[in-house]
Amino acid sequence: MGGKGSGKPKGCKNKDQSKHWTPEKKRAWSKEYYQKNKQKQAGYCRYYRKTNAEKIRAKHMARKEEIIAHNAEKRRLEKVGVMNHYSNGTMCCVRCGFSDIRALSIDHINGGGTKHRIELGRTGEAFYRWLRMNGYPEGYQVLCHNCQWIKKSENREVRYTEYGSKAIRRIRTSVD
Ligand SMILES: [Zn+2]
User: Fold this and answer.
1) Separation of CA 105 and ligand 1 centre (Å)
2) How many whole angstroms separate alpha carbon 153 and alpha carbon 167?
């Protein structure tokens, strides 16, 4: 407990002490610097892209396959995350237990999925991202495509016309 000295300890006024950067301090400084110089930085980037367009294109083309694979993997991981969450880690259709992720999809439990997706303007990966970024809201489940169509048929969301196999999907506005 001792050391009740009068006045500040010498170290506090020492310049080297004030330069002691903790990771938090560094992050805060970078954040502030970025906010202050955002326009300037963007200008540098724009200028670089403009003056090195060919170089950037060549670099991109050289890595094309890698970039395509990387993006596909990103989409796959996004889907895996969402399916994992809504199936409680089983990654299976809740009705029939089918587990090939290629044919699994997210079902709106109370219907209206197509309408909702249209309103959001998001399908596929963009919809999965929306679910993740909104904290995985309730009201969704994992169904395979077969069970999706069976459910649609049971709920009379699919209409078969007199032309035989041609199915017309109808968004049921009455169910809301
Ligand atoms: Zn199923």
Assistant:
1) 10
2) 11
User: How many angstroms does the Cα of residue 97 sit away from the middle of ligand 1?
Assistant: 6
Distance of CA 171 from the midpoint of ligand 1 (Å): 22
Handedness of CA 18, 20, 21, 24 (dihedral sign): negative
**Which one, of 157, 152, 154, 142, lies nearest residue 96 by Cα?**
142
Alpha carbon of 6 to ligand 1 centroid (Å): 76
For residue range 108-141, what is the model confidence (pLDDT) as tens digits? 998 888 888 888 888 888 999 999 999 999 999 9
Largest CA distance in the chain: 96
The pLDDT-based confidence of 1 (bands split at 50, 70, 90) is very low
pLDDT of residue 120: 85
Is this prediction's pTM over 0.85?
Answer: no
Q: Return the SS3 of 72.
A: helix
Residue 147 to residue 136: CA distance in whole angstroms: 22
pLDDT at 143: 95
User: Tell me, what's the pLDDT at 19?
Assistant: 65
Looking at residue 4, what DSSP letter applies?
-
Residue 86 CA to ligand 1 center (angstroms) comes to: 14
Q: What does the alpha-carbon distance between residue 74 and residue 83 come to, in Å, rounded to a whole number? A: 14
